[in-house]
Design a protein that fits this description.
Elements lengths: L2 H14 L7 E6 L5 E2 L4 E8 L6 E8 L6 E7 L4 E3 L6 E11 L5 E11 L8 E4 L6 E5 L7 E7 L5 E3 L3 E2 L6 E5 L7 E9 L4 E3 L3 E4 L10 E5 L9 E6 L4 E5 L4 E5 L5 E6 L3 E6 L10 E6 L4 E6 H10 L7 E8 L5 E12 L6 E12 L5 E6 H4 L11 E3 L13 E4 L3 E6 L5 E5 L4 E5 L10 E5 L6 E3 L11 E6 L2 E9 L2 H6 L6 E8 L4 E9 L9 E4 L5 E9 L6 E8 L5 E7 L3 E7 L6
Parallel strand pairs: 2-8, 28-31, 36-40
Antiparallel strand pairs: 1-3, 3-6, 4-5, 4-7, 7-8, 9-10, 10-14, 11-12, 11-13, 11-15, 15-16, 15-17, 18-44, 19-20, 19-45, 20-21, 22-23, 23-24, 24-25, 26-27, 27-28, 28-29, 30-31, 32-33, 33-34, 34-35, 37-38, 38-39, 39-40, 41-42, 42-43, 43-44
């Protein structure tokens, strides 16, 4: 056969041989068009023609004409449960499937209408999937006015949602939360136009039965005056995260798969972290969720690591201890990194755990990172030479060895009033200030506060230094005032009668001098966990998160209110460990 004939035959065969089909995805959903405001819809991808390889999925939502908002970034989870609890309108949900081996992607979306629950211009109260959370839907109100909702139990206890601005073309929707189970409440909204306040009609509803029980609690010292903040939000470890009143009565809880709440945010939003020592880094989660338990945003450590590595940083293994929103809307989170070091912190090869501080933008993209291995002295061992065992408690997941030196064990990070970062390293007994400069800083260490650090103490106390501390934070109203829960592990190692302390410290950063304003003996020793906060009445809130053997149980916790003179004004003990607790005005106001 001539060469030309062979070429023609090959071309003909190619034209009739089907090309390999590209990967495609179709988005299945439980949503029916239209969907009422607040209704939860489920979404699931069906993938066709995918080559062998792990598939990851990203979900985004938008209203037409607006940008996409990532709800869950790329990860192995397939299902998404999502609800729009704000306003009605047309929404589009998009899923992108990605083959992690080939890099191939495919996208599909679903568009549907979310409609108001208001009918006939009258407000409506609707149950949610959470028996203690209801959705109140009020009609549109005049632009420029504001609206809030008041709800009241039979004893006359009144709660309010915050005000929000009216829009005259859509309904106004509020979650009602902070209520006791199986209790009838009356509710109405108020529109504030400036010259006058106009109340809506009064409705009533009854909360459901809780699906969990609060741990046994006892008030050791009741308040003698009205509570400054009457809701106690508890980031528990052994039972679902929950909120109670100051008598221990259950008001709210979250049963989603997180290890603990890190911080409450305005308008009934919460940040939480999931650590799973049996799983890889794609199953280590940071999540924002609402009062009804709906996910607002979520990402995983493997996805964040991909971004970090592409920026020239080390990868992370998991998130741990702290995540919170910054004033610009970005998310700051602590993460774990591990390095095999040679003849550092031990002879030969040693696995050393360190910390990464990661800042994510509103769409969960990494915009800033700080690596402790680049800025701190790796030859300075943990004060008590702590180590971790793979799969054990108390440490984030790690993978390069079966044991590791727990070098830093960071447990909090806060944006300081001057735009930098305050980072607490429990195992160094130090608080460290880092040059962040609102996102443009180099990460340089500005100072280290603690024993053998950069400050001297103006104090007559024989050992004023905190140790193995938790929840260090500057007072927003007074940027020279620092609060910290002093667990006191280093003191306790030489004195078994030592107690944990609540401290308020005046910090002269220019001259590196510290002065104790409060050094309250909290009456017991908490070897781990804990929190510190200033209350609106000028008192202080401290959490002793882990009290071994108290009350005849393996562990208990104690929330304590302390006056500026160091006297205990209120105390409640719970038969469960508590990572942090927060005294809140309501579940809407941190």
């Amino acid at each position: 056969m001539k060469a030309g004939s062979i070429a023609s035959l090959c071309l003909f065969v190619a034209s009739i041989t089907p090309l390999a089909a590209s990967m495609s995805v179709s988005l299945a959903t439980s949503a029916w068009d239209p969907v009422p405001v607040g209704a939860v819809a489920s979404f699931y991808p069906n993938v066709s023609n995918a080559d062998a390889g792990t598939l990851w999925y990203r979900y985004q939502v938008r209203k037409p004409g607006t940008g996409w908002k990532v709800i869950r970034d790329f990860g192995p989870e397939t299902w998404l449960y999502w609800a729009e609890s704000g306003v009605e309108g047309t929404y589009e949900v998009e899923v992108t499937a990605q083959n992690k081996v080939t890099g191939e992607t495919a996208t599909d979306s679903f568009t549907f209408k979310v409609v108001s629950r208001v009918t006939g211009g009258q407000p409506v109260v609707s149950p949610t999937a959470h028996p203690l959370v209801f959705l109140y839907s009020a009609p549109a109100c005049p632009a420029g006015a504001s609206i809030r909702v008041q709800f009241q139990d039979p004893s006359g206890n009144v709660q309010y949602t915050p005000y929000k601005g009216c829009r005259n073309w859509v309904s106004n929707n509020f979650y009602l939360a902070g209520m006791q189970p199986n209790t009838q409440y009356s509710v109405h909204h108020t529109v504030d136009t400036g010259p006058e306040r106009v109340d809506g009609p009064t409705l009533s509803f009854t909360t459901g039965l809780a699906t969990i029980s609060a741990p046994a609690s006892s008030v050791l010292k009741p308040l003698v005056s009205p509570a400054a903040n009457g809701v106690l939000l508890q980031s528990t470890l052994a039972v679902p995260n929950m909120a109670t009143d100051l008598s221990g009565n259950l008001l709210w809880y979250y049963t989603g798969n997180i290890s603990f709440i890190t911080y409450p945010e305005p308008w009934g939003r919460f940040l939480g972290i999931l650590q799973d020592t049996s799983a890889d880094s794609s199953h280590q989660i940071v999540r924002e969720f609402d009062l009804a338990g709906n996910t607002i945003q979520e990402t995983n450590a493997a996805r964040v690591s991909e971004q970090l590595v592409s920026m020239g940083h080390r990868p992370i293994t998991a998130f741990h201890h702290d995540a919170r929103r910054l004033p610009d809307g970005n998310l700051i989170v602590l993460a774990n990194i591990e390095q095999i070091l040679n003849n550092v912190q031990g002879a030969g090869l040693v696995d050393v755990l360190g910390d990464m501080i990661v800042v994510l933008d509103r769409n969960l993209k990494v915009v800033w990172a700080w690596d402790a291995f680049d800025h701190l002295d790796t030859t300075r061992l943990a004060v008590q030479k702590e180590t971790c065992t793979a799969g054990g408690g108390g440490c984030p997941p790690f993978y390069l060895a079966t044991t590791a030196n727990d070098w830093l064990h960071g447990n909090s990070v806060q944006l300081t009033p001057d735009g930098n970062l305050l980072y607490s390293s429990r195992h160094q007994d130090w608080l460290i200030k880092i040059l962040y400069n609102n996102g443009t800083g180099s990460g340089r260490v500005l100072w280290r506060f603690g024993k053998d650090g950069d400050f001297t103490y103006n104090s007559g106390d024989p050992y004023p230094w905190f140790s193995h501390q938790h929840d260090a934070n500057f007072d927003d109203a007074d940027p020279t005032k620092l609060l910290v829960f002093d667990n006191g592990n280093t003191r306790y190692a030489t004195d078994s009668n030592a107690h944990s302390r609540g401290q308020a410290i005046q910090l002269d950063e220019q001259n590196h001098v510290a002065t104790l304003l409060l050094n309250a003996d909290l009456g017991a020793y908490s070897l781990a966990l804990g929190s510190a906060a200033l209350l609106p009445n000028g008192n202080y809130h401290f959490e002793l998160g882990w009290l071994n053997g108290l009350g005849g149980t393996p562990s208990a916790s104690r929330a304590v209110e302390v006056t500026p003179s160091g006297d205990i004004a209120y105390e409640i003990q719970d038969q469960t460990p508590v990572y942090r607790s927060f005294r809140m005005q309501s579940l809407y106001v941190p």
